[in-house]
Design a protein that fits this description.
single chain; 96 residues; mainly alpha; 2 helices
Length: 96
């Protein structure tokens, strides 16, 4: 029973320690630190447009890759079941 009381007290002390240690003023960091992500506490104002541009680029590359793949697709043996790429490939008109 004594150990049952010690655990909650220690756990409560741990939670109190966590609440005291977090937050507060920003930590002083070196002025000449460079990182590809932009530093320690970055909050770019144009994050939404950056995300939209990156997502558009990913979609464009994916579309081009898909188109080239569908254009160059060759089947030596006709499939006996439905394959999703049959919807976009140039051979889909000939497959019955």
């Amino acid at each position: 029973m004594v150990s049952g009381f010690i655990l909650p007290i220690c756990f409560q002390h741990y939670l109190t320690w966590l609440s005291v240690q977090g937050g507060g003023a920003r930590y002083p960091y070196p002025k000449y630190v460079w990182s590809p992500a932009g530093g320690w506490w970055t909050r770019p104002q144009n994050w939404l447009s950056n995300t939209a541009i990156a997502f558009s680029g990913i979609l464009a590359v994916t579309y081009l890759t898909w188109s080239v793949s569908a254009k160059n697709e060759r089947r030596t043996v006709q499939p006996d079941r439905f394959i999703p790429s049959m919807l976009v490939c140039s051979l889909s008109a000939r497959v019955k």
